[in-house]
Design a protein that fits this description.
The protein has 226 residues and is of the alpha+beta class. 38% of the residues lie in helices and 13% in strands.
Amino acid sequence: FITLKTKNGEPLFGLIENGTMILNEFGKIIEDEWLKTPVIRSYVHLDEYVIMPEHFHGIIELSAIADVVGATRRVAPTTRERATPTTRERVAPTRERVAPTTRERAAPTTRERAVPTTQIRPNGPKPGSIGAIIGQFKMQTTKRINRIRFSESEEIVADVGVGVGATRGSIVGATRRVAPTTPERVAPTISVWQRDYYDRIIRNNQSLITIRNYIRKNPERYKNKG
């Protein structure tokens, strides 16, 4: 059972009218991205969910395949790596293996003592985990919402440059001075969500029924802010 809240509790996703949630443009983005989750990840199954003005509730189920993501990295060594040493490798050392000289016994350099990079574990949630799924969902929704925010701010800038009695040339000039929304200019990032999220494991069928009912009745119990 997942709960996400908007930054500072801002009602971004719509309004409640007569006990029904009316999604605005941002709210429709939230719904669209949530429903994409099982399409992108076949091991994910969605249950009941609701988008509220400033928070989101949803039930998500992961199949067993999510637990084996990355298992191929832990496979046993190949036959070549496990092969027993050859006869030449097992023979006793000859007189040529004399004690190393002072130069040979010198302590290894910093470069030689460095920990192999393969032993350094990457930061972030485990692939396929709830944390990874929610992180991707929050990133995509934030990106799409900020695109709209940025394009709307450009329209305002363009309108400011067009006064009463402006000529066609001045209008064209004003629109040309507006920052482009094309990929060469990335929209600034404005937080949509709180940094963390809340999750609860549903351990039995009765809990599942209770949480489903809670989600369905959320709009009826809600009071609009403002």
